[in-house]
Write a structure and sequence with these properties.
Shape: elongated
Pfam families: Aminotran_1_2
Helix content: 40-55%
Distance between the termini: 43 Å
Number of domains: 3
Number of strands: 2
Structural class: mainly alpha
Order of helices and strands: HHEEHHHH
Family: Belongs to the class-II pyridoxal-phosphate-dependent aminotransferase family.
GO molecular function, one term: pyridoxal phosphate binding
Keywords: Acyltransferase, Membrane, Transferase, Transmembrane, Transmembrane helix
Largest sheet: 2 strands, antiparallel
Radius of gyration: 24 Å
Strand order of the largest sheet: 1-2
Organism: Mugilogobius chulae
Number of helices: 6
Length: 189
């Protein structure tokens, strides 16, 4: 609960300061290039409405360099980033040519390193692919059930000390296929 409260407080503070900065800009007290459109963009239809402009100018461009770092390696448990700088308040970036190596990856589903092309995960994936093939690379409801699925569920149930357990793939498969089946209305024919 504390994390949720602090997150909302952070957004509230950013929003308050954003409105304060807009007020100061409207009265020509603050001059900031972050809110100015470039000359070559002025003849085009605006891409954003009022809230999108507010968010883009006051929140997103301030953290854009942090959120959109270009990677130049396999996104494993660690990865390499391209260093870049900005001279116009993060509207555009210029690459320095320097690579920041071995940064911890906290921004993808690959935080355990399963997508790397070398190492124990890659070796185990190659071995399992030889044994089972790649045909069942989708949800169990769509493409079928393997003995490995049932073995995993029995292991999870034994670990939790319950009669049975269900396991699901992570991400989209869980959200789109399984949650509606568990929470939706029963369909009758």
């Amino acid at each position: 609960m504390l994390i949720a409260v602090l997150t909302y407080m952070g957004y509230a503070i950013l929003t308050i300061f954003g409105h304060l900065r807009n007020f100061l800009r409207a009265w020509k007290i603050e001059k900031c290039n972050i809110t100015a459109e470039r000359e070559e963009q002025k003849d085009f239809v605006p891409l954003y409405q009022e809230f999108e402009n507010f968010y883009t100018w006051n929140v997103y461009t301030r953290v854009r360099d942090i959120l959109n770092r270009p990677i130049c390696s396999v996104p494993g448990a660690t990865m390499d980033l391209l260093e870049r700088t900005s001279h116009d308040y993060n509207w555009t970036f210029e690459y320095t040519g320097r690579i920041v190596r071995d940064v911890i990856n906290l921004g993808s589903y690959n935080y355990l390193g399963f997508a790397e092309n070398t190492g124990p995960c890659a070796d185990a994936a190659a071995e399992i692919t030889k044994k089972y093939g790649v045909g069942v690379a989708s949800t169990r409801q769509e493409m079928g059930n393997l003995d490995r699925h049932e073995e995993l569920e029995k292991l999870v149930a034994r670990f939790l000390g319950v009669e049975a357990a269900m396991t699901f793939g992570m991400g989209f498969a869980t959200n789109s296929m399984n949650i509606p089946a568990l929470t939706g209305k029963l369909m009758r024919r």
